[in-house]
Amino acid sequence: MLASTTDQTRLATMTGAFLDMFAADFFGTTLTRATGESDDAFRTRIEEALFPSLGTRPDVMNVMADEVGAEGRVIEPRNATDCKGIGTLVSPAIGGGYGYGVAALRYGSRGAPFQLFAQLPTGDTNPPATQTLTRIAAVMPAGTIAWVQDVEKTD
After folding, report:
1. CA 119, 120, 124, 129 torsion: positive or negative?
2. What's the domain count of the chain?
3. pLDDT tens, 67-82?
4. Do 30 and 64 reside in the same domain of the chain?
């Protein structure tokens, strides 16, 4: 019994009710085990809640992929990689500046800090689900703005 108890002192080896007690100690009633959830799946959720990755572009991308089931597109107006350069139909990614009149290029702006546009490939153009917007807002840094749009496909 003592050997079994030793396993219950570390999150990596906890099982059963000990894992539930660990979550209750750290998160109260905000993080509980789902019905039928395995120890490994619950442990993963606990670890993610203990050590959240917040405020980065990959975090927004991960939330979008989790919510929609496909990788979306994030466009930051101040990011030259997202907006490309002055383009033409013949050479869409050549030059500097902004991409006017070319479908694959986006308008950039140095005057729009701390903003991003997120395109969710849901297959329709309905407004995004409230749950999706809430989850994106939860990983964004304070004071930033995300403009979110459902699209049929990202281009």
Report:
1. negative
2. 2
3. 888 888 898 888 877 7
4. no
